[in-house]
Structure formats: C-alpha cells, structure tokens
Amino acid sequence: MHTRTLGRTGPAVSALGLGLMGMSDLYGPAEETESVATIHAALDSGVTLLDTGDFYGMGHNEMLLRDALRGRNRDKAVISVKFGALRGPDGAWLGNDSRPEAVKTFLAYSLRRLGTDHIDVYRPARLDPAVPVEDQVGALAELVRAGYIRHIGLSEVGADTLRRAAAVHPISDLQIEYSLLSRGIEADILPAARELGIGVTAYGVLSRGLLSGHWTPSRELTAGDFRGHSPRFQGENLEHNLALTDALGKLAAGKGVTTAQLAIGWVAAQGADIVPLVGARTRARLAESLGADLALTPGDLAEIEAAVPAGAASGDRYAAALLDHLDSEK
C-alpha cells in the first residue's frame, strides 16, 4: 500500500486508515471475533494507521485493539487516540475535559488499556471550551517530551484554533469529517491546515453508510445505532441523499468500481495531505475499501462533482441534541 505523511511533522502512514469506533459503539452491535480479524486483515494488507478513542465503548475499543495487536509487531502500527469526551454509564454525552491534569490521567489509562508504552498520535476529541487550546497543547507537548506520545493531533476544530495550537507545538494532523456530502472544511479549515503544514485524517468518508451503495430506505436500525436519529437518514432527507448516491453509483459502474470505492477515492484525490479513514467492521467491507486506490483524472473528478455537488446533502450531520458534543467548532 502507498504511504502518506501526516503533515510536515507527523509520521508516515498507510494511504488509507482504519477507524475502529464502529467495532465498539454507536453503529449497533459488532461481532468481536470478526472485528479482530478485520484489524488483522488490515495490518496484513499494509494498513498501518489505526484510529480509536478512549470513549468508544468506554474503553472497550482500546482493549479490542490491544487484543488485536497481541503477538504483532507494535512498531508496524500507528495508533491514533482521541481523548477527553465524557460519558455516563448509560452512554450519555456529558461534555469534554482537557484540563492538563485530566489529559495526563486519560493518557495513563489509555496506555494501560492498549498495553503499550506510547501512543503515536494523541488528540483531544473536541475542544474543551473551559481550557484555552494553548494550555491543552502545552500539556500534550509535555507528554511528547516525556516520550509517552509521539505526535499531537487535533479533531474537529476551526482555522483560528489550528493557528493558535500550531504556535505552541507542531500539529501532525487534524481529524475531521470530509466526504462528498460533508465539505464544510474546504472554505477555511483545509486552506489553514495546508498553510500550517498540518495533515488531514478524514473520517466519515462514506457519510456513515449513505455513500456506501449498500444502504436502503427499508433498513432497520438497532437501538444503539445513532443513525436512527441522524437527520440525513430521515424521511425526505434520506430519499434525497440516496438519489445522490445512485447518481454516484452510475458513475462508479461505468468505471468498473463500487460506489464506496469511488467515494473513498474522491476524498483521497483531494490532496496527498489527506488520509481517508474507513470504518469497516468486517473483512468484506475492508476488502472493498482497499480497492479504492484509484487514479482519478480531472475529468473523473468533474463528473463526480456534477453528480454530487458541494452542498447537495439534505439534513444536518447530527441530531440537535448531539451537536454540542459531536459537531465541529463553530
């Protein structure tokens, strides 16, 4: 697999990363044996970037990754961890905590759950409005100097925050949603990241399944799947968004690839400084995603743009009740 570098100062990683959240949380039940097998298949295929969060399943996701890496060469994996999101025993979102003492505590627990002595990229999941970003990055810089983390990342922040953070310590990458249906970063955030030499790890590249080509209006969701409350998956919004997916699917068929592969390939084609994260939970879905290494021409990109133009999605990314905890910086 080809590699890309996370910004000017970050590590070299596989050109496609694996996001592990759905193996523990928010997308309904997942089969643990298949999850571990999928991580193994990813590593065997050359995927090195593995993304998790300490609040995915309240620690379960990190322990799952520990189990998957047992007996493997730890240095072959680039582990990216998000921290700071607070959750109750019922899974409720309770805010974010990035006080310097909390940052060190979260890290200590993550190192233990992961069974490793360092984390490659460590990042606050969302901004803590009570703590200046300079203080958050300053605490992380201390941990870099101590050898507990290798690189500092950020997640879902705006251009001004990127600049303030980068003035304290080099930032390897910004993790943020980016897909054909979610293009809000293009106006200000992506240009700022490029100005500062910060890479982008793009999650949601299939818009949580909408752009996969596998979604149907009749699909029933379990109680634990937050898409059951997501505006883009409701009523007329869903019909509109699936029509966009159908248009993309027709282009994909003409190129001999799947809808998902074309959607992932489009994100990868937006720049060598962007690494798509795919949330494959099974080996079959992973295999499909690995086929997204496409050489898209300017003509191809123009056709895709015409089929799914910027701003074409119907509905917000999240339900209003989750916006304060999950949406990007305003």
Description:
It is a single chain. The chain has 330 residues and is of the alpha/beta class. Helix content is 37%, strand content 17%. It has 11 helices and 12 strands. An 8-stranded parallel barrel has the order 3-4-5-8-9-10-11-12, surrounded by 5 helices. Strands 1-2 form a two-stranded antiparallel sheet. Strands 6-7 form a two-stranded antiparallel ribbon. Helix 2 links the parallel strand 4 and strand 5.
Our Rg estimate from Cα atoms comes to 19 Å
Instruction: Kindly state the number of beta strands.
Output: 12
Give the SSE string.
Answer: EEEHEHEEEHEHEHEHEHHEHHH
Structural class: alpha/beta
Task: Return the average pLDDT rounded to an integer.
Answer: 92
Helix share bin: 25-40%
Molecular shape: globular
Widest sheet, order of strands? 3-4-5-8-9-10-11-12
Query: Helix count?
Result: 11
Percentage beta strand: 15-25%
Between the first and last Cα atoms, what is the distance in angstroms? 36 Å
